[in-house]
Amino acid sequence: MLAWRDVVVRYPGFELRLDLEVARGETLALLGPSGSGKSSALRVAAGLERPAAGRVFFGERDVTDLPPERRGVGFVFQDYALFPHLTVERNVTFGLEERGWERDRIRRRVGELLAKMGLEAHARKKPEQLSGGERQRVALARALAPEPAVLLLDEPLGALDLRLRERLLLELRRVLSDEKVTAVFVTHDQTEAFVTAGRVAIVKDGRLVQQGAPEQVFERPADAWTARFLGHKNVLEPRQAARLGLAERWTVLLPGALGLGAGPLEARVRERLFYGPRVGVWLEARGVRLYWEGPEAGAPPEGARVRLTIDPARAVEVRP
Ligand SMILES: Nc1ncnc2c1ncn2[C@@H]1O[C@H](COP(=O)(O)OP(=O)(O)OP(=O)(O)O)[C@@H](O)[C@H]1O
């Protein structure tokens, strides 16, 4: 449905090269650290920026030379604010009038979206009377209103606090799936990407390093950098793996690889971190720092000596 074909974007000191497709109805997360080129990729798809080379397709249509308003995309970008002088309802209605929709159809669509986004009670407020999360929901409703073929979201939950993000994440996921829209969203947060997207594409320094279903990229990260970026804490150099009795190669220990309580290795508990539902424990075994996480009941205290096993089936090789 959406494809970047050999797209190149250049700025002084930076180059993005992207060849990537998104299927109809799919939600793709572009995941990468700050400055990796995610927003540039999205701006090219939206038509806010022209690539130095390559083409952008929506289905069979080459849209590279079309301005944003002729592409049939909806976008929610952080710097694309709501209209401050219009009410919530008018913000959502505006684009539909511009497109010449009939009154009744507008009324139905706007009512449906305000309900879906939980905004009915705020319909007559102005943006300045809304919380950050409410504004974000209005922006999403406004972008979805014209039933765009493609929806592009840049850090849609970026500025919100943790609890609100979690709630909106669920809403976003539900809305994207019932609207059956093809969506691409940019984030630097792997949890956000994993929870919301059917597929993630990981970008580093302007290059695509890996793409696949969340489970697949998490369990089989392409290399040590990607593993760490995705949140793996036990990424072992070959020497460290060998010291722990594993094959001498770059290794990621997947969650569940470490068993505490019995086993051939002895470890010392260096730090014990209480997170609430889980406890994190940093261990040292044969001079290698290892991380274990589990329920509080199974977590040993700081300073304790514990026996340790490593399940070789949960130890996967990665490229350096
Ligand atoms: N208009 C521009 N002119 C010059 N350089 C730019 C421009 N836009 C972006 N860049 C540079 O290109 C690189 C990629 O920027 P981009 O915004 O695509 O990254 P990002 O992955 O979205 O980062 P973030 O998560 O911080 O938003 C950065 O080094 C940035 O400084």
Essential attributes:
320 residues; alpha+beta; Rossmann fold; OB fold (Dihydrolipoamide Acetyltransferase, E2P); 2 domains; 6-stranded mixed beta sheet; 4-stranded antiparallel beta sheet; 9 helices; 32% strand; binds adenosine-5'-triphosphate; AAA+_ATPase; ABC transporter ATP-binding protein; ATP hydrolysis activity; ATP-binding
CATH superfamily membership of the largest domain, which one?
A: P-loop containing nucleotide triphosphate hydrolases
Strand content: 25-35%
Tell me, what is the CATH class of the largest domain?
A: Alpha Beta
**How is the largest sheet built, in terms of strand order?**
6-7-8-3-9-10
Strand count, sense and closure of the main sheet?
6 strands, mixed
User: What string, H for helix and E for strand, traces the elements in order?
Assistant: EEEHEEEHHHEHEHEEHHEHEEEEEE
Counted up, domains total 2
Total strands: 17
Bound molecules: adenosine-5'-triphosphate
Tally of helical runs: 9
CA(first)-CA(last) distance: 34 Å
Decide which structural class fits the backbone: alpha+beta
Q: Any low-confidence stretches, pLDDT <50, length ≥5? A: none
CATH topology-level name of the largest domain: Rossmann fold
Envelope shape: globular
| Average pLDDT for all residues | 93
Radius of gyration (CA) equals: 23 Å
CATH architecture of the largest domain: 3-Layer(aba) Sandwich
Helix content: 25-40%
